[in-house]
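Hi support team,

I submitted a single chain yesterday and got back a structure, but I'm not sure I'm reading the token output correctly. Could someone confirm the output below corresponds to the sequence I sent? I've pasted both exactly as they appear in my results page.

Thanks,
R.
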Amino acid sequence: MLPPSPHVARVSPPTECKAWVGTDRNAELPGYLLQQPSGATVCVPLLLTASQPTAGYSGDYYVDEFTDAKLKARWAACKADEACFKRINAQMLRWLPPNKERSTRVTGTVDPIGKIDSDGVVDLRDIRRPGFFAKAPYHEAVAEAHGRTHVVEFTVPRDPLERLKLNMQDDIKLRGWYAEGTGVDDGKGGKARALVIMSAGGGSQLTAIRHPEDVAVTIDPATRRATEVRYPNKTTEGFGMRGWRDTLYALNQAGFDVLAYDRRGEGLSGGFSDTNTLEQSEDIFRVLDQMESGRGMRMLTPSGQVLEGSSAGGKLMAGQKARQIPLLLLGYSRGSMATGWAMAKNYSGACTYDLVAVTCTPPKEFPNIKGAILYASFVSGPGYLPDSPDLADRNLFLGGMVAENYVAFYPNSAVLASMNKWPAVFFGKGLWDRAESLEGTVAAYDRVRGLKEIVVSRGPHSIETWPEQELTYLRARTVEFAKSALQGKTTVPGARTWTNIKELVATTPEVWEHSSRPKGK
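Hi R., thanks for writing in. Yes, this is the structure output for that exact sequence:
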């Protein structure tokens, strides 16, 4: 029997200074004064938590006060207030499909090779494979995996918004890559096959082109304000995708099988709605079932053979069952929401928060899930919303999207409540990540009783803005964690040590996201 999860947070040393942050805050933030290897002392900023329990509060504040029911009740109060409703409803309308501002299928806009009709019948040979990225100017490392990478297609139902409000009743297809691994050191002198399932960030599209000379952010030298560069343009389709493929390849090169597919409503995959992360978490279990049985699945093998249905079943996952092959779930940003929901479903049970009548089912209890890898995580939930004016309405938006539109986008506190049952967790996070405060990430980390590690960087939510050496380190630590989880270790070799948030901030090297570098650095 696991001990109860802690809900008394570590004591955080008070902040000591303020420092300018460029992307994506363009503001001064509180921070800690830290001595650098150069001998200088510098203020290193972070985002703190907006909501704190009142004095004498008894209970698990960040779980108990941010449940589905309480978030929906706050939305109901907002809905009854004309000004509040008008403000939040305008935000919801910007996120509802067709969400072209935030979700545009860009694959094929620079190079027509790989452009498909995602909602049509697709020839899997038309989808870009790793070898496409070998050519100049891309020269991506993932091209080496071409000969062991399958193109895969799965069949899933429409989400509740599509079914109940838009009367879309047909199935849709999810498409992506499955890169076969050679096996990972099992710690016992042998090798074990293991699978990592990758869930990308919002707008991410697996096979989108990124030109190596394009940049994420521009800086006004007079004001120091950072502006995100919008893509696609004439040379880049999706900026962060080279890094996503680099992460896929790092895991595959280490011996892991890796499955990466575009979420519903984006990129290679069909569908109209891309924002219901609760539904996207169920897709993870659906594709596992389909790889075992073949039902609803098609695949294009590296040799060019198309397999469908029962002939495709059992060909992947090293021929193992969905509840047999060791699994790790990796999610970035919006993908961390889907991954967190999937972990909660596995260990605590699934609830239909996106329907009018909320019903719950028992845990899925896949015994072979070894842990979660979370980049730019949202799993600590709405209670750990960062203290920033532009984020203040997020929890009303959360409640409204679920109650009015059947869309469970941001997780409620159910994911955090489940984390004491998770076997292992890895976090990669920017210090001023808008998804959740650093205190929230630490609180989520503290609830997990098994293997765990946090890697932090002097950067924002979007890891594609981080310096390349920080991304290289993040990938190396991800691989080390994944291997350690597979081997059943209790600590990750080489993990940086810390005991409080200031010490965690101090684990960052003197390397900054470009637009947030202190003057003179």
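A quick pointer for reading it: The chain has twelve helices and 19 strands. Let us know if anything else looks off.

Best,
Support desk
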